[in-house]
Protein 1
Amino acid sequence: MAAKSYDNPELDQKLKDTYYRLGDSNPEFSKNILETSRTLANMCYQCGTCTGSCPSAPRSSYRIRKFMRRNVFGLEDEALTDPDLWLCTTCYSCSDRCPRDIAPTDVIMAMRNMAFKRDIIPKNFLMTVKLIYDSGHGVPNNDANRDARARLGLDRDPPTTHTYTEYMQGIRKIIDSCDLKANADRILGE
Amino acid sequence: MAENNQPRIGVFLCHCGTNIAGSLSINDIIEYAKTLPYVVHSDEYQYMCSTPGQGKIVEAIAEHNLTGIVVAACTPSLHEPTFRVATKEGGLNPFRFEMANIREQNSWVHMHGMWDEATSKAKDQVRMAVAKAALLEDLIPKSVPVEPAAMVVGAGVGGIQAALDLASAGIKTYLVERTPTVGGRMSQLDKTFPTLDCSQCILTPKMVDVGRHPNIELLTYHEVESVEGYIGNFEVTLKKKARGVLSPEEGRAIGVDGCNGCGDCAEVCPVIKPNPFEMGMAPRKAIYIYHAQVMPLIFTIDFDSCVKCNLCVDICGTKKAIDLEMKDEFPVYKIGTVILATGFELIPIEEKKEWGYKRYENVIHGLEFERLICASGPTGGHLIRPSDGATPKRVGFVLCAGSRDNAPGIGKPYCSRFCCMYSLKHAHQIMEKIEGVEPYIFYMDIRSFGKMYEEFYYRIQNEGAKFIRGRVANILEDPKTKNLHVFTEDTLLGRPVDIELDLVVLASAVKPNDGADVVRKKFGVSASQDGWMLEAHPKLNPCGTTTAGVFLAGVCQGPKDIPDTVAQAEGAASAASIPIHCGEVELEPYFAICLEDLCAGCGMCTNLCPYSALALTIKNDRMVMEVTEAKCKGCGTCGGFCPGGAIKMQHFTSQQIVAQIDAYLLGGE
């Protein structure tokens, strides 16, 4: 709702109305988060213990406290379209220390699930889906590792799906049961 | 009495504004009540507790010759006394009144869309109350005299103030303190916010006053052993812990001088222990005083560490004040009322591992800071880093260290209420004493709610303290320098911060004092959900408890600062003096009665009674049970058990209770 256009898109963007208005909130979003995350996400009092504990925060623009706030306010689009959503390492330090006994990590996971339903997901996450589908590993074995294992007197491949490839069938069945691979392929293809 | 001795019951319904009338149909219940047996009158009013509401009861008793009153309204714990008075004013015995709680037990829990169900439940409640009302009997409460003496347990600033008020009102007061001196936590503080008065300077005059007030008997180094009796007639057994040293009074009684506080004994004592008054940061001997201003100025022997070398006995010489063979004694005191003022202690903050207390030398807590900044403390008032004795130049204050914390563990969900203010004061104190020092205050909210508190916050900010709005996530120590890195988010900048500091002070949460629970239970006082002692009503009776004659003062009832503690202590003293000045109290006539014709004298009830109110006795050549009415609390344990049905619980007779059950099961539409 810019008051006036200066025929300069950059300036228009800077001058645009940024008021929060009640209509910006989607209470259903907060309810959904509460149900999916199974943690009392609405009880956040914004103390900052989470961001202060976060190994990602000092090295990125990821502020978990901001996502907690967006949840309380039901700012669905702002939360789900923010690329920072994918910078959580799921180390659970914030959940360990939260004085309101909330698990912020689980809130992030819930948001990621909801984002994926809207096809919002970084490519590298989809590549990981493909790797697991193909090898059973998010980070499959490679030749450098195989040589290192051999030097240590280990089998060149670990006793996982790399060795027991017959189990790949079951893993693919699990992934296919929720159309994860199909969706990943579809989004990557678009 | 009505003709034919038939009961004549009046039923009154209260709307309580819309509290009740908004959730169920008052009119339906009024009409229904008229159909119940013995009901000859029914009426309703907006607020039955108001003067016109009570007037309706008074008028109806005369007009309809009523024998029993039922009011369907709120909880009896709120208005039973009100309606009893109205019943009495109408000329009936006040115990001819029965209440049906259709608010707490009905409308408030069935508020939304349960109109018909709530109405139907209220009809059940009224029907049951009417069934009991028809069987109510006249009861006469007993008055008992009140022992004209009071006891105060705990001699911190709250207990001291309460004792001084009681004593000044002319009441003999026993001030009980488990440590060797009065003074409590306040005597450990250096200065007080927001006035920056020296804590000791304003407290010691009061400490001296309790020592010499003719109506106060100071019982330091005593603990509550056991409590018997009831309001007006408590018998409290104290444990007079063996102090090993005779006071001048005790000395005089056996013809010796007793302790004059000269301190020669401590000088020769070879045993060194940490002094708890200095939070263990300074030494004391096995024979010791906490500090120079103790009241009474009498030394105490720590028999757990005394090696009985007799050096102190020898140096004490002709004063003969020391008795190494002293034993605990158990004197009994008769009192009318008691005030509990047992105070607080800090939570074991070391269990919050992320902040490193007891792991990192330079992380201390608020009480340790008070002793380190205090001129009479272990460092003579020079704040130092425990690791190297250096003067810290950058000091962090961690607020809400364990307060407002709902996570499992030692954290407390409540606000400890004085940490914001004392941390502001700490910041001021270091800026006053250390040139170029930088205080960093890590906070979530600054709660400066008292008189001149917000102004104090303004002042400290103006003096240059840095405020960072973020709860501290963790603290790490640089192993070489022993400096501390404090990690949090500056939530106002939205930026993680890592601040290197010389010293960190944790504003640790508070909890009830160790042992407060034991004292609480001995006096029959409940605890609230958060562990503090439960007041009778949080707003209208904040000094009283549910045990008549027992009152609360200070932090034992919930965190509060010195002004609030003193105010509550004065309130408690006033409340505790009322029964003593009245001289007698009325006891509820809910005691058990032995129906001697039915009693087989088996004696099983006497062992069940939790109040030792029952005993066997011989009457008319038969063994029967006898009740000491004043001791009986009407709990009903004996009445419920008696195999012969020989025990009648007044106001809760078997017939009355069975009538209520019958009314519920057999009645209804």
Protein 2
Amino acid sequence: MYSSLVRIQNTFGFFTTVAFVIAALIAASDFITPRAPSVGMLKTTNLQVVRGRPHYYSSKKEEYAIIKFSLDADLSSLFTWNTKQVFVYVTAEWPSTSSTIGATIASNATANQAVIWDAIITSPSADHLSNLGPATLKKLRKSAAGKAIDPSRGKLSLKNQRPKYQITHPSGKIAETADVTLRLHYNVQPWVGVLTWNQGADYGLWSQLSGGLSRKFTLPGLKKREEAKKTK
Amino acid sequence: MLSSLQNPRQAAAQLMNFGLILSTAFMMWKGLSVITDSPSPIVVVLSGSMEPAFQRGDLLLLWNRNIFSETSVGEIVVYNVKDKDIPIVHRVVRKFGLGPRAKLLTKGDNNNSDDTELYAQGQDYLVRKDIIGSVVGFLPFVGYVTIMLSEHPWLKTVMLGIMGLVVVLQRE
Amino acid sequence: MASSQEKITVYNLADLKNTSDDAIPNYLNSLKFRPSHRLTDVRLALGYTAFLLAGACFLWDYKFGFDATKWYTAAAVALYSAINGALTLWIFYVERGTVYIGTAPSGETLRITSETPRKTLPEYHLTVEIEGKKGGKKETLVVTGSFTDWFDAVGHFVAPPFQSMLASAVPVIGKHDPKRVAPAEEAASAYTPEMLDALSKASVSAVSSAAETASGAESTPGKKGGKRRKA
């Protein structure tokens, strides 16, 4: 009872201690790596509001905003040895309409927020985990052959990008909404440690995201059905 | 005669040591619960819907207080749906309104559509109180033990039995 | 004495210490010393209070859920940490390895603490604090021994040399057990390994068969060899 079991116990205990200490050190190394993400340009290129159904079997009709945009961003400093993936997303944000809450409260810019586009940028070390077709995966792996970290993946350049998500509002109305802005966000997913998002201020070696906010715009009025068909 | 009086104390002390190991583990868990304000501050990922960020068996540390800002879009939250036992870990992708009544919509990074289908009948959005925490920390793979234990329940009994025996038989 | 027939692993220092610790109250109580259980009782009270508190916390959490009871839970966690902290301090600063407190029939109070100062050596250190009958000056004795002197090769505890060590080193004990006091030139270590084996066999054969003991004795050298190869 004593000898072998106790030795196994001690060995296992030591192994876990070492593993946890190493994990803690790796997690802490994030804080001594500078981050300086920047967005060169974020602007809308085409705005559309159409009517449609949330599901094909739904009888309810809602208004959907389709916001096309262009983006130039450099998030390469977010890729370190402890980065598993960076989740990049663009939100449309607009204040509450005075008709629903009351004329006085319409100031808060983030009362409504909806993701219109997102992307998962994996580190080369996490490529094998991404949910891609075999051909795309092969291409992705080839792009970073021999590299453990590939900061160049953090350089984004999108031209007239179609949104992944057409956004709605619970009221069903979204046409002619004023003071809408687009904002770029990121979420760094580590291999071990704390998850981090774009900050509103500088913390230590991490600078806040410079740029990343588009100019305010107003969504257009509802497009007629015929017109919507034409554009397609 | 007097030595027989000594023995119940020793037995009581040994039983107490075993009990204190269990109760200390439990109270540490509850302490973490109180600090993070979450009924379940550490969760194990059970599905692949957040891949590649989270795999099955990864351990997530949650935080359920809104000290500096409200729970907002982009955060990965763990939420409960009425009448469903298993909490879900997904990302908030839409938020309409502010405060406790704000409507939140979630989606798994690896899923094609949002979670409307996963919510209860007639529920289109979550509200803040459905959420038991936002993911703030990540430790890979460690939680796989619990997946093993829940998939093979007899392992639980065996492990608890061995632990009990070792503590009761061995005084350290 | 049933405990002396129990076999322990001689490589386990904790086992050696615990067995020896247990033998002290057995011996002294047999000499009509009156034990005091104050220290143990306080430890048990603290420990079981903490355990019951955790149990109660588990019950209300299970029954009413986290959100409804979180203030009680927070209070319970704080109280639990306080009690557990007190227990730790009690063990480290008040008990500090005490294995026996008792009063001799002649009126002196003994407090014996034990430790094994080094992990790799079979050393047993006893500190004996003696207080006179009328609360007079405190006397402190340090008794050092080697476990090899009262455990045979198989791991049986052999009482006579152990008791003789105590009786020889501590006058208060010697006074009540004069026949165990060894003459100055004949220290406890005078017991050779062969004598220990013989003594242990003599005591065991009274209860169990001699054959069993012999087979146990044979198996040990082989085990020992295996250990050495690993090291």
